[in-house]
Request: fold
Amino acid sequence: MKTLARPDDKAEILRRLQALRPDSTRRWGRMSVHQMVCHLADAYRMATGERLVIETSNPLGRTVVKWVALYLPVPWPSGVRTTPEIDQFRGGTAPSDFAADLAGVVALVEKITREAGSAAWPRHPVFGDMSIATWLRWGYLHADHHLRQFSA
Reply:
């Protein structure tokens, strides 16, 4: 299973991020590539506790949905709504400068992998309690999902 905890998997995500261009075309969804970069940054800030989100988890989300999303070997589907605090059309960080925003998400990937053992990880808004290993698995899958959205 791919995870940001593995150096090769992390390098893959960083390479794919660096391949993005301001004019990258989406294959699905509503976000522009720049909005997606800001969404990933917000999501990683959520994982580190820097961006607070309201938990909406329930027993189904904390068990079955969590297991399917993190461990079933199929790509995540498009069209699943995110929490409002990191939704680019509601409360997400507005795009600014593409190069700076892209550098920011790269720095956040570096930060969460560097500080993985020392960070106090919050609860996921849908999946509830997650171990460091689970957060890093989620971090890989979330980035992979959105990078596939832009053929990266």
The mean pLDDT is 94. The radius of gyration is 14 Å. Residues 66 and 72 are 10 Å apart (CA to CA). The chain has five helices and no strands.
